[in-house]
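**Fold in tokens:**
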Amino acid sequence: VALDALAAIPFALLRMERRAGTFAMLRVLVVMLNVGLNVLLVALWQWGVEGVMLAGLVSSFVGAAMVLPLALPHLTPGWNAGLVRALLRFGLPTVPAALAALVVQVADRPILGWLAGAHAVGIYTANYRLAIPMMLAVSVYETAWRPLYLQHARDPAIGGMIAHAMRYFLAVAVVLYAAVALFIGDVVAIPIGSGHLIGANYWSGLGVVPIVLGGYVALGISTTMAASIHLTKRTELLSLANGAAAVTNVLLNLALIPVLGYIGAAWATAGAYTIGTLVTALVAQRALPIAYPWAALATALGTVIALGVLTSLLPTQGAISVKLLVVVLVALVAWQIAGRKPKAFERKPTATASSQ
């Protein structure tokens, strides 16, 4: 953990300098090293838990060793008490926010196991992971988005930039939602060796996927709106939003799982992200009001809801031509949602903005 914390600063520097190629290459190398060591130590040498821990330690050490030299030219000895206070004032409130976000990510499985049993957890977990394309899209978006708006912190056009970023995320999200939600049943049915992406006995839980995808769309919207909170340094507001999401997640799991089983757990996740997004919208707009494209947002959400209903009506496997037609139509809707590229995204960050 300490090594990862040290490496986080140089990685953040790469993001701020828009060195996406270097950032991605180093991240991929660390992940590949970790996976390779796990295969060697756990699968081949049978080291068990110790092998997993050693693989993580070695990959974290190598990652830190690769990126720390990038930060050395920027380091000068000294102590700035004012800067330390500012960093603590900004960073400490994010700790409870991060813990609350963790609750949303992990609370569903133990509650599901308690109320519905291990079999339900297995089906739920296998299908939950099929929503990973949207999760990765949101993660990549957040990685690129935060340094971009921080670089333009003092730009008078920052509000327009945030509003257009919302448009672009929504445009990508609705197309990705359509592709994954409609075709995931066909993808899991493709033979891979002697099996499938997930076992056929888990296919009964494919209804989890569109619901979880919708939750990740809400998370991406929240990520966009959180720019107002970070730009105004009101990070304590993140705890309100994430705390509301965590409480919602636990309560909905307790209420819905006894009635709907693992589908209830999926709805609890989507509901938690939705509540978190609504609270983020309220507090972020008070911190830094943004003229969001509300019509485009409503169109995107309506499209996601319509797609969710459609996936329940279409066969899980087959009807490929119909599904392709739907994806094409959604892509046309996404084109309208995206609108035109603003000048704020075309120019390089100013020296003033880069100093933030």
